[in-house]
Request: fold
Amino acid sequence: MLKLTFLGTSAGVPTKDRNVTALAVECLNPYCSHSKASASQPSKKSRPWLLIDCGEGTQQQLLRTTLSVHQLAAICITHVHGDHCYGLPGLLASSAMSGRSEPLTIIAPQAINQLIEAVKVATDLYLPYTINFIAIEEVLSQDKDSQDNKIRLNITDQHHIDIDITLLSHRVPSHAFGMTQKISRRTLNTDKLIADRVPASKIWGQLQQGEDVYTKEGKRLYSADYVNTEEKRTRIVVAGDNDTPTCLQTALQDTDLLIHEATYTTPVLAKIQAKNLEFDPMHSSAALIGQFAQDRGVPNLILTHFSARFQSFDNPNSSTPNMGHIRTDAQSTYQGNLWLAADFAQYLVEGADRQVTVLGSTLDSSLSKLNS
Ligand SMILES: [Zn+2]
Ligand SMILES: [Zn+2]
Reply:
C-alpha cells in the first residue's frame, strides 16, 4: 500500500495554487492493523517515504504535511531541469540542520551529484549524513537481466521497494521510476500444529520466523509445513517530463497506477509547436497520454505538471484555460479512472484490487485544524 502526497503540480514555474514538481510516496504496511486505520493520521514512526523530484520550495510544502525528513529513505530525480531539482540543495541543508544522521539514498542523473558537490563547496555546506548517490546512467548501462538493473530499498526484512528506471523522451534525458512494493507475511497453520500435537511454545514462533526446529523428542519440524506466506504487491510508475508515452510500454506491465505529465491540452500543444518550429518543449498533451494509457489498459491515471496558463478551477466551457480543458482533453481518449493532481492532494494505492482511493488534501486537514 502506497500513500501519495503531491507537493507540487505546476510545470516550469510555480503559480499561486501550484508549486513546481515534487511527489511524496509513503510505504505503508497493510499487515500492521494500525497502519490502514491511521492512513490519514500517520504516526511518524516506521513510515519511510520517498521523494520523487524536488522543485524549488519543496521543503516549504513539506512543512504543511506530516512528513518528516528523518523518515525520508530516498530521493529520486527524473531529470536535470530546474523545476524538478532546484529544491534539492535547500532540502539537504535543512535536513542537516534538523539533525539528520541516517544515510540518504539519491537516485538521479550524474549531473545532480555535481550540483550537490558544487553547492557544498560554494556555500560552505556540511552534511553530517552520508549520501548514497546512485547515478541513473550507471543503472541503465547494466544488462536488463542483471540484478543491478533494479535498486532495492529494504524497509524491513519482509517489506521492500524495487525501483526500476525507464528512459523517456524529452529535451534532456528524462526518466520514469517504476516502484514495486512487496510485503510478505508468514501466518502459522495452527490447526495443523495442534493436529500434529506440537504444543504452543517458543517453537511456534521459530517456525513462523522460517526456522526448522527439533522438538524435545528429537523430531524435526519444517517451517514450510506449518507456515503460509502471503505477499502483497503494489506497483506504480511515476514519469518525468516526456513527449512519447510509448517509451513506457514495457514499464507499465502489471502496474496499478501511472502518474504522468500532461503539460498542455492538444490545441495548446499544437499552437506552441506551430509558433516556434525551432523549439519543441517536448511535453505531452492530456489526450496523448490518455490515448496511450487507454491502449495499454492502465486502470488508474493521475495527470500532473500542468502549464501555469491553466487555472485551477474546472469549467470546460470557460474561455480561460483551466483544469476542465485538461480533463476533457484526457477524457476524449481515456475511459479509466482519471484524476488531475493538485498540491497536497493525497491518494492511497492498494495493489491487491488495483484500487486508488482519494484521501482528500493535507491542506484541508491543516485548515480545519486552524478553524477549529
Ligand atoms: Zn518540468
Ligand atoms: Zn523538463
Observations:
- Confidence is low (pLDDT under 50) at residues 34-44.
